[in-house]
Amino acid sequence: MSLGPVHTPTKSEVAYEALLRAIRTGELAPGQRVVLASLAQQLEMSQTPVRDALSLLAEQGLVVRRPNHVTVIGGNSAERSSEVSMLRSILEPEAAMLAAMRADPGDVADIAAACDAMDRALAETGPAGTGDLNARFHLAVARAGGSPLLADFVARAWRQMPLEGLTASGRLARAAQEHRDVLAAIEAGDRDAARALMAEHVGRAAQATEDYLRRASPDGGLVRDRLRDPSSGFRS
Questions:
Q1: Angle at CA 204, nearest 5°, toward 142 and 139?
Q2: Which of 72, 164, 195, 232 could form a disulfide with 97 if both were Cys (CB 3.0 to 4.6 A apart)?
Q3: What angle do CA 79, 170, 134 make, to 5 degrees?
Q4: What pLDDT, in 10s, does the model give residues 127-182?
C-alpha cells in the first residue's frame, strides 16, 4: 500500500473554516459588517489568507461585497434556505439509497458513531452542544454511498446551512431518532426505506429551519436584536 503525504491545511483554508463556522453559528450575523484588518488580527494571521477566505465565501454567497470596500455577512434568508433544502431533498435521499446498497462495515460504523456523538451531545449539553454533529451524520451517509462527487455536492450544500437555525429549531431530539431510523435501514440494506426515510427527514428539517429563519428576519426581531448585540466575537 502506498500512502501519500498528509494534507496540511493552508492558512487560507484555516481562515475559511473559522469564518465559515462563525457565519453558520451566527457569531458573524447576517448584515454585520466585517473589516479585513480586524478579522486578520482576531485570527492572528496576515491579511492575505483572510482576504482569500473572504473571496471564497463571497463566491458562495455567504459574504457580500459592496461599494467602497464594504463587506457584510450575507443573509440566511428563508428563500436561500429553501433553495438549499431543495438541493438536499434531491441529493440526500439518493445518497442514503446508495449507502444501503454499497456501505461496507466501516461506513456503517462511521454513521453509527455520528449518531452516538449526537445523542451524547444532546444528553450532556442539549441542542447548543450539537454543533456540526448533525452535519457529521449526513456527510457520513453521503460518503457511504460510494460516490465522491455526490458526497462533495452534499458537503457543499451543508456549508450553506445555518447551524444556529438547526439548533434553535427545537427538533434535534426528533432528528436524532430519525438518524437512527435511517441508519437501521442502511444496516438492513433496505434501499427503498433508506431513501424514503431520508427524504422525510430532510423535508421536516427544511420546514423547521425555514420557520426559524422567517422568525429570525428583521421583521421578526431576532436578527435585529443580534445586530445590536455587541458581544459577538468577530467585530467590525
A1: 15
A2: 195
A3: 75
A4: 766 767 889 999 999 999 999 999 999 998 988 776 666 665 567 889 999 999 99
Instruction: Check residue 176 and give left, alpha or beta (phi > 0: left; psi -120 to 50: alpha).
Output: alpha
- How far is it, in rounded angstroms, from Cα 133 to Cα 139? 10
The C-alpha cell that represents 67 in the structure block: 461599494
Per-residue model confidence as pLDDT tens digits over 96-124: 999 999 999 999 999 999 999 999 998 98
Q: Which residues lie closer than 8 Å to 209 by C-beta, 6 or more apart?
A: 81, 85, 161, 162, 165, 166, 169
Sheet of 33-34, strand order: 33-34, 70-73, 63-66
Question: Of 81, 24, 26, which is closest to residue 57 (Cα–Cα)?
Answer: 24
- Cα–Cα distance, 10 to 56 (Å, whole number): 14
* Cα dist from 90 to 86, 101, 230, whole Å: 7, 18, 39
Encode burial over 71-87: b for 16+ CB neighbours within 10 A, e otherwise. bbbbbbebebbeebbee
- Tell me how far apart the alpha carbons of residues 143 and 113 are, in angstroms, rounded to a whole number: 14
What span, in angstroms and rounded, lies between the C-alpha atoms of 39 and 36? 5
User: What is the distance between the terminal CA atoms of the chain, rounded to a whole angstrom?
Assistant: 50
Backbone phi and psi for residue 34, each to the nearest 5 degrees, phi listed first:
-125, 150
